Amino acid sequence: MTGLNPAVDAVAPTARRPRVALKLRQDRSRATTRGWRATPWLFLAAPLVFLVVFTYIPVLNMFWYSVTDWNGLSKTKNFVGLHNYVTFFTRPELFRVFIVSLYYFVGGFVQIALALYFATILSFRTRFKNLFKGILFFPNLINGVAVSFVFLYFFRPGGTLDSLLNAIGIGSTPQWLGNPDIVNFSLASTSVWRYMGLNFVLFLGAIQSIPSGIYEAAELDGANRWHMFRHIIVPGIKPIISLSFILAIAGSLGVFEIPFIMLDGANGSATFVIQTIKTAFNFNKVGLASAMAVILLVLILLVTWMQRALVPDDKVDLT
Questions:
Q1: Sign of torsion over alpha carbons 266, 267, 269, 270
Q2: Is the dihedral of CA 120, 123, 125, 127 positive or negative?
Q3: Full-model pTM
Q4: What percent of the chain has pLDDT over 70?
Q5: How buried is residue 40: exposed, middle or buried, by Cβ count under 10 Å (0-12/13-18/19+)?
Q6: In CATH, which of 2.60.120.40, 3.30.200.20, 2.40.50.140, 1.10.3720.10 is domain 84-310?
Q7: Are 256 and 168 spatial neighbours (Cβ–Cβ below 8 Å)?
Q8: What are the structural domain ranges in the chain?
């Protein structure tokens, strides 16, 4: 009991002070820790709000529109179930646009092969290496509208391509954009020219991240450039190659800009996205167009999953 022993009463407050100070420090530490934990969420709040408002909510609305007969103008949206999906798969003129995507699908593989080839060459000692890097990446910096108008003049009758062919003795040239049998080759080659720079930069950065000592050891063992490419470069950049294939497949299904600006989908150049937009805004069938958009989303996710399952990203240790 206090008050009975003055010596104890004098020591007790002094003994309690360190405990009180320790408790205060612990409380401040907990408050600081909670503050640090909350800080990232404060910075992420605005991007998350924009992501939810402008991405997830519209996607959910798209799923809802796909099971209605909404025309985009009226206030009423009648539920029709899976009617729009059945309509899409039973109308050949809507389903046939996937054939156009095959041209861009093949073009995507050509694009990856060319980008990997140039990235491999320019990763070693080459004269004017920086100049070639700039030339290859430059098309990726040009606006898609500008690229489309440039290639309109490039492919037009008597244009740049015909003049070049005439200069080497080829006088009879086809209608590059007017012939339905050739138009998609022309448009796909335009996409290859424009987007190859992005794959080139990705491959070049991945190749240069491989330790140079591995190349030196391979040279001492008598390996040539092909052996280095096959046994060092390809395994070392396998995740980037896998990513490029995913982007190429998704891009071939979602082509829009170049064929829309150059031809507005004429002469059999309409892609799936162009057909979806025309269905929604030209024919006022937003419900059917939403179902087409859902099908495209499911296809991209399915192809991506299959690619990841068949070609897993195994971690390769080259050090």
A1: positive
A2: positive
A3: 0.77
A4: 85
A5: exposed
A6: 1.10.3720.10
A7: no
A8: 84-310
